Amino acid sequence: MKLELRGITKRFGPLVANDAVDLTVESGQIHALLGENGAGKSTLMNVLFGLYQPDEGEILLDDVPQHFSGPGQAMAAGIGMVHQHFMLIPVFTVAENVILGHEPSRGGVLDLPAARSLVREISDRFGFDIDPDAVVGDLPVGAQQRVEIIKALARDARVLVLDEPTAVLTPQETDELMATMRRLADGGTSIVFITHKLREVRAVADTITVIRLGRVVGEASPTATNDELAALMVGRAVELTVHKDPPRLGAEALVVENLTVFGPAGERLLDDVSFTIRAGEVLAVAGVQGNGQTELTEALVGLRDRVQGSIRLDGEELSSAHVRHVLDSGVGFVPEDRKVDGLVAEFTVAENLMLDRSFAGPFTKGPAIDFDHRDRFADEAIAEFDIRTPHRDVLVGRLSGGNQQKVVLARELGRDLKLFVASQPTRGVDVGSIEFIHERIVQIRDSGIPVLIISTELDEVVALADRIAVMYRGAIIDIVPADAPRERLGRLMAGVHE
């Protein structure tokens, strides 16, 4: 089935999320829609899927205009969408999830054998190896994603939209997904592949459309270089390679021994974790999201209260310390969700830059805030970190994601550091800001400060790390050199210890 979007425009008040977007996906083609977070990719696909109504433009399938008032009509027309966050019910079986909403019946009774047969037929046709009676919550993430694809194909989807499909996959699961996409395309399914990952685009796409700030800014072939694609995404040349010298290692600085974190019911969320980081070293933690990374960072900075084990920084025990004491001890912390834990959107840039330091010098003079010092610090930070803001008194919630992240970095690096902890440091950040953030992290490491990076982006882990710790189900399964093969890292991320 051929898909055409002509002049699609979608506004949200004064914000133009999609601006006269044209897109053509031929039958049996894998068409990558490449762009930064916030570029308008998902909005465009939500218009296609009937979740949003376009303000202007039209949708055509095999040259026939379509008008979708909701997802049901889009699915009936042959459009399927696999969302970034799966729409599955964990306690249901595969077959039950696949037929949910369009249940087959025989004599007024649910026909589960027909559902099982449908799942087996699709699974066998595309080599998915999915048991229709398996409980979805017991399946690995990659298998759950295949269930989502089976759901779409069960409704005769001839155009399949995959929205950031590799965000929660190991490298091996990503390779399996790419092979699945190629089999689907060879069978005539048209695929729209939404992503911001250049490596994957070049590996699987037949053609690439780049979208920036809601507009199509160019098309490219998979033979385009990463630098060429990044320049289209950002609008300028970008240095994608992280340049760093071999580490100049000092003494052991952070020593974590037998660290265990318990949940409300006494379950182990972090299980007997031990590692060290030396001065001037980057230890990067790899793993699929949800394997204990959040609990690890929260325990390190004093945000968890059910903790056993030892955390020593330059010999000082911090395992039972309050978060304020941890930060005052010289720990800089970039949380994984800047909007929830890193910033107050209704505060100004200047106010956010002193958030956790407003109770003591140098930001106070007696019992009051020293506004002159705060404003000087803010102006210097804005200049040093290239924070794109008209003024220090602009509300931080009005900045782009990359500039918000720079505010967090500037605040955390504006203190005397003994340790820098950054969780998902470039999540939701444009390529240009990624370049800047990576450079700063290398500078911190080269100044002799130990650095702990937690990232689900394997390319980022490999680029920044001196050593890599791989987490699986709340434990560190192994610590390997930064030049370990990606295949080995992928096996470790899937829980396969060698």
From TrEMBL:
TM stretches of this protein: none
Gene3D superfamilies, sorted: P-loop containing nucleotide triphosphate hydrolases
Its annotated compartments are: Cell membrane
Principal localization reads membrane
Question: Residues in domain ABC transporter?
Answer: 3-238, 254-498
GO cellular component terms, A-Z:
plasma membrane
Q: Which UniProt keywords apply?
A: ATP-binding, Cell membrane, Membrane, Nucleotide-binding, Repeat, Translocase, Transport
- UniProt-recorded name of the protein: ABC transporter ATP-binding protein
Q: Which species is this record about?
A: Microbacterium lushaniae
